[in-house]
Amino acid sequence: MNWQLVPQQLVTGVLNGGIIAIIALGIVLIYRSSEVFNFAHGQMVMLGAFLTWWFAGGNETGKELFNLPLWAAVPLAIVVMAALGLVIERLALRPMTGQPLLAIILMTLGLAQLLEGATAIIFGIEPKNNFPAPFSPSDVISIPFPGAFNDTIIIKQALLATFVVAIVAGLMFMLFFQYTRTGLAMRATSADHELARSVGINVPRVFGLSWAIAGIIATLGGVLLATLTGVSLSLGVVALVAFPAILLGGLQSFVGALIGGLLIGLAQALVQASSVQVVRNSSEIAPYLLLLVVLLIRPEGLFGEKRIERV
Amino acid sequence: MAALRPAGDFDRSYEQDMAVLRRPWQWAALALGAAVALTAPLWASAYIVTTANTIFYTIIAVQGLNVLTGYTGQISLGQAAFMLVGGYTSALVTTHFGLPFPLAVLVAGLVAGLVGLLFGLPSLRVKGFYLAMATLAAQFIIPWISRHALPDLLGGTSGRIDVPVPVILGVHFSETSQYYYLSLIALVLTTLAVLNISRSRLGRALVSIRDNDLAAELLGVSLFGYKLRAFFIASFLAGIAGALKAHSQRGVGTEFGYGLEESIILLGMLVIGGLGTNLGPFLGVTAVVLLEDLAGLTGQKMAEWFPALQARFLTSFRPIFFGLVLMLFLIFESRGLAHRWQMIKAAWRLRPFAR
User: Fold this and answer.
1) Which chain B residues are closer than 8 Å to A309 by Cβ?
2) Which end of chain A has fewer CB atoms < 10 Å from its terminal CB, N or C?
3) pLDDT grade, residue B124 (50/70/90)?
């Protein structure tokens, strides 16, 4: 372990975790209302980023259709993605109601492939590095910290801003679920479909709504990710680490998704402080090793309900 | 086998009852199929032989997945990773220990099977989505190990090592038209094995776990033992398929795929063919491989028409076609092509009375 690097990696890890957390939030949201594990969420994140980039005037041929500032491009992308969420729910998931788990998992996996291919055809396969991020990677805040490497901790402004946005958005969604009528309807639906129906909640509408909100969250996550790494087709795979985060936090829990995301970000960053080369390289699989440990020791996760089917 | 037999159709001996082929037309179909398959390299084009070779070893991997997912009902997102294990094992034992090819393939199956057991262990505690996540972890961890552990042996970050041409009794199987026969023989053997697993005690136990695990346990089926057996069989067959693929492509490693996408495609092939049927892997793999060729062709045509957008058209139709067909199958034909084939046979037998 290279202890000098630890303070820096702790900070970076937590900040990175914020983005994982907001991606995880979208998956938990859909799972809670309709018990669908959306493996296509990563692709929705990617598509949200591509749409924002496109509305903000990104186009390699130079003939841009739109040339909006970021504050206008993001809401536009959010509207499109929310509509797409509704369409996906109506066309792909509603016919699957009552089908076995495997069929539903495969449906979202097929959807992921379809979205990935469609994104590539519409926007091209080359990575886009001209995302109009409000911060450049060289904008950093240096905090003196004795004992750390060079006695300072360096925080990228972009990273800090995305972390703040992720946490604020996450908390806002949690308040929405806790205190609004619609949020209450969604929680009731997740608790019991039939009971929810019997008190007058339109359950199919709630499903549609949760997919639309997931589209919104995905776009936010995509924009935050794109700010850090640029827009590319690999965003969909990057977003897959949200799955270990969810299982770590517990499938049904929003708080769990947030904390799981932070922990996964921490784990990824901390292995990079190791002095062994192989361990440093393992940051891409660290979430999955952690996932195996969680599955063996505490399958319901940190904050999940103990409703999990044991064998 | 006993399902849907017309009245008056009895078995008169145990041999008859246990027969796989029970009708004259089935023998005729087998003879015709064998004749076509055995002589194909003599008259068919190189494209057909290459595609058939690919289809053969892919069917083996999907047969394994069928035992695990189709019969036992355990979802696996890691089949491609176990193929990678098999490919590497076979490559290493032939290069470094000089093992003969058939033995190397067998060892590849065994090693992959053991690795599969390791990742099947969580099935002791979890199932359904949670197990899918455990196999997803395998799908990320195994290729990572191949890129980062023992770089001299496994090719390191280049993601590939070379695999020798298989030699059996002095014959070099260097051309695809020759290699084709090796895949064919392996496929015949695995098909017989899977067929007999599915209709024996083991297969029934696996199906009982899928249909109701609580009832299965009460009937004396050891859940853990049988699930692990299913995991072993699935990754054993994946290992064999991986070894065949590696020797056919003369190389193995993450450079040649073996990623999450491949695992998803293998699952998709199984669903499109028909879960839990022995015919399913054959139909599904053939359909998806041909579909992917069609996607490639579409991409080439589009690239010719719009040369400015060439790069995106050449690669992107594959996932679009596959995703779309998989989704349509799940909605409109969720029991797969094998079920459709059963319906066609039934309609033919009942004609002209029922449709």
Assistant:
1) 126-128
2) N
3) confident
Which residues of chain A from 4 to 43 reach within 8 Å of chain B, CB to CB? 37
Stretch B159-183: mean pLDDT: 80
Q: CA A152, CA B232: separation in Å to the nearest integer?
A: 52
Instruction: Determine the length of chain B.
Output: 355
Residue B37 lies in a domain: no
pLDDT of res. A63? 53
Q: Is the Cα torsion angle B236, B79, A307, A292 positive or negative in sign?
A: positive
Here the CATH number for the domain that contains residue B322 is 1.10.3470
Domain tally for chain B? Answer: 1
| pLDDT single digits (tens) B77-115 | 889 999 999 999 998 898 888 888 889 999 999 999 999
Q: Which of residues 36-75 of A touch B (CB under 8 A)?
A: 37, 61
How far apart are alpha carbons B97 and B88 in whole angstroms? Answer: 13
Question: Chain B residues with CB inside 8 Å of A103's CB?
Answer: 271, 330, 334
Per-residue pLDDT band at A311 (split at 50, 70, 90): very low
**What pLDDT, in 10s, does the model give residues A65-99?**
667 777 888 888 999 999 999 999 999 888 888 78
In a domain, B245, yes or no: yes
**A3-297 has CATH 1.10.3470 classification:** yes
Domain that holds residue B94: 45-350
Chain B positions touching A120 (Cβ under 8 A) are 312, 315-316, 319
B98: closest CA of chain A, how far (Å):
30
Judge whether B25 lies within some domain. no
Q: Is A110 near chain B, with CB under 8 Å? A: yes
Chain B within 8 Å of A279 (Cβ-Cβ)?
no
Here the ipTM equals 0.87
Q: Which of B344, B125, B47 is nearest to A292 (CA)?
A: B125
pLDDT number for residue B2:
42
- pLDDT reading at A292 higher than 70: yes
Q: How far is A121 from chain B (nearest CA, A)?
A: 5
Residue A282 near chain B (CB below 8 Å):
yes
Decide if B89 is inside a domain: yes
